[in-house]
Amino acid sequence: MDSDLYIFLCIFNLFIHICCGAEYAYTIEVDAGKHNCFFQTVNNTHHKFMEIDYQVVDGGDLNINFVMLFGAKILLQETKKVEGSHKFSMEESGDYQLCFDNSFSYQTRKVLFFELFLLDENGSFDETNMVEEFGPVRQEYSGLGFEMQKFQKASNNIKNLLNKIEYHQSLLRAYEARDRAIMNANFDRVTLWSVVNSIILVIVGLLQVYMIRSLFEDNSKLGQLLRRQHF
C-alpha cells in the first residue's frame, strides 16, 4: 500500500473514532400511567462526569417526573418538571438508571427529548487515546514534523465545538417542538370554544325570536304566560 494512502487511512480512522464521542440523544414517548427507564454503563476511569438535559415537548401540561438512580441510591428526583439540566460526578463505575415517570397522568402521554453526555475530568468529551495505535505511522513521519498528538488535540477541540453546536441545535429543535405543541393545543382550544359560543349565540338568537313572536300571537301558550306575568 502506498505510504501516503496508508497515513490518510490512519488519520481518517482516528478522526472517525474521535467523532464518535460518548454522547446520546433520544426522543421518547411515555404513555399515561407508565414510566420508562434507561441504563447507562459508566467506567469512571475514563468518564468523571455525566451531564443530562431533558425537555418535555408534547403532551398534557408538558411535565414529567425524573429520577436518577445508582443501584438503590437515589441521586436526583424531580417532580412534574417541564425541563431539566444536571451534571453529576461519577464516583463509582457501574450502571446508572434514568427514569421518566408519567404515572401521575391518567389520560395524556408525554413526548420528551433528552441528551446524555459522558465527560472527562476537564468537563470535555472523553476520547480514548489513539496515539499508541498509530505509533509506526508517527515514527515514519516524525522527520516531516507530523505529530499525531497535535492532530488528536486539534480534532478533539473541533469535536467539542461541534458537540456544543449540536447541543444548541437540538435544544432549539426541542423548544420549537414544544412551542408548536402549545400552539396547536391553544388553536384547538380556541376553535372548540369558538364553535361552542357560536352555537350558543345561534340558539339564544332563535329563542329570542321565538319569544318575541309568541308575544304577538293570541294562541301561543308561551305568549299568554309572558303577558300574564308582565301584567
From TrEMBL:
Alphabetized SMART domains for the sequence: EMP24_GP25L
Residues making up the signal peptide according to the UniProt record: none
Its membrane topology: Single-pass membrane protein; Single-pass type I membrane protein
Pfam families on file: EMP24_GP25L (PF01105)
InterPro entries xref list: Emp24-like, GOLD_dom, GOLD_dom_sf
GO terms for cellular component: endomembrane system; membrane
Superkingdom of the organism of origin: Eukaryota
Keyword Transmembrane found: yes
Keyword annotations: Membrane, Signal, Transmembrane, Transmembrane helix
Subcellular location: Endomembrane system; Membrane
Domain spans labelled GOLD: 35-118
Entries under PANTHER family matching the protein: TRANSMEMBRANE EMP24 DOMAIN-CONTAINING PROTEIN
Family: Belongs to the EMP24/GP25L family.
Protein name per its UniProtKB record: GOLD domain-containing protein
Source organism (scientific name): Brugia malayi
